[in-house]
């Protein structure tokens, strides 16, 4: 083939590039070259693929072995699961038995607890019933006390009944603190005035009067005061009332030569007594100056105990002669007891000596009896001139 310009000469024939035969031949040649190129590339790629496939084949082989091992493990696992299922079934059976046993114990214990709880509940209900009965009784007492409080309010609202209440309280306190023969209630003095109580103290100081006073209206007005004016008016009322009582007691119940040089004003309320001493000290001082001492139930009891000690001392002085005579008799009785003890000691000494002699004699007799018990008659020789029968065995 000879190429001339735009023409191709093949076997003496001339072909143009645009000739269909040339184009077809060129296309066929290009196709053959392309196929060869593709085959080359395919062969080359196949080689590379083979190289790349070796690790993959190895991994596939390992994977197959692992799958086979996994199948063996799964088979073993199936056997293990069966064993586990059997063990679990046996464990469940044992657990059910254990639970049934525990449930029986729990049921028994619950029954016992319920029975005990029933007994305790019954006992508690019994105690509750008793307490309710006690509460009912206390309620009745409270209702009675409420009625008594109302009655007390009615008593305190009237001056005469209030005075009687103070006298009764004074009589109760004096009766508890002093002997019955050491005081007298509602005693009329030489001036015709009647004292609530007269204590028979020896001279000095002599008989002393206790008079009960109860300035309740002034105290209640003082407690109810809301304004300063009401407070001042109530305080003025209380001062006037207490001063009046102090003057009356000083004039009526302090008589020279007949009573002690002083008297007691008894306030049957600790609250009024505390109010006077806390906020009205001038009234206390005025009472001291008038020789009238203000006392409450508590301080009156302490004062009466002091008077009791004075009465006891006076009576002991009066009985001093009798006490001395009694002491002499007691001393003589003690001397007689000492003499009799000495005589008794002598008798005991003689009896002890006799007992010692008896003991010695008994011991001597015991020793002699022991020697006789151990005595061997064969060791004794016949006394001169005595006929002694010899001891020997009897002939058979």
From TrEMBL:
GO terms (BP aspect): DNA recombination
Stretches assigned to coiled coil: 128-155
Key words, A-Z: Coiled coil, DNA recombination, Membrane, Transmembrane, Transmembrane helix
Transmembrane stretches, start-end: 20-43
Stored Pfam families: RmuC
InterPro entries hit by this protein: DNA_recombination_RmuC
Family listed: Belongs to the RmuC family.
Free-text function comment from the UniProt entry: Involved in DNA recombination.
Protein name: DNA recombination protein RmuC homolog
Organism: Rhodovulum bhavnagarense
